[in-house]
């Protein structure tokens, strides 16, 4: 058999497979390489975990535009403040997730009890979810006959899981009768849901004040952009003249004072609204549990 000498590369590879006993063709190397993709994924995870470091490139860009190292130093000083703010936001979200998990737990266990399951089995079958690894102690206590109320109180020490104190009280009082425990859990769930709805309503009412504060805080940045567009070079004046440095320092102090003052007003309004529900009264979950 003869093969035409001018065959393409595809035909040559097919001939080698046919007459050399088969084999496998080496696939082309993927692009981008796996190492590049792995390092890219690590970089994205690191960027998500270190969001406060975004201040550095922003400060560096302003420093290049203004020809001064002061914006970069200000960005370095802002990194720990932004880190604290992000940590507070993360803790608030974790608190809300735990609160939602407690409400869901109460409804799930109450439904299982009405379906005919024993209290220990119903509680042991609840997944940990957002309640954290400490929930394994509660599941073990419910499964093997341990001190369930004490384990519930240990988990309730975490922010957002305070409603488990009411669950522990209901468990200690009505663990011998599944129907009574289901009723108590329903009341605890309803009280926690009402408290969460009240907090959401308060947050929506204060959203306007927060938006106004943010808009007023961004007005100096808008003024700098408008001045740069008009050719006034405000960064050169602020960063390279004594009068500009004094104005920058005074404006920064006034900006910080305004933000702190607005935050204090919002927190005071939230505190007064929370106390208006019932000063000195126990929380909704504890009151319903009792």
Automatic annotation (TrEMBL):
Entry membrane topology: Multi-pass membrane protein
Compartment list: Cell membrane
UniProt keywords, alphabetically: Cell membrane, Coiled coil, Membrane, Transmembrane, Transmembrane helix
InterPro entries assigned to the protein according to its UniProt record, in alphabetical order: T2SS_GspF_dom
Membrane-spanning parts: 58-82, 213-233, 239-261
Residue ranges that the Swiss-Prot or TrEMBL entry lists as coiled coil: 185-212
Pfam families: T2SSF
Top-level division of the source organism's lineage: Bacteria
Keyword ATP-binding: no
Type II secretion system protein GspF domain sequence ranges: 108-227
Primary localization class, coarse: membrane
Protein name: Type II secretion system F family protein
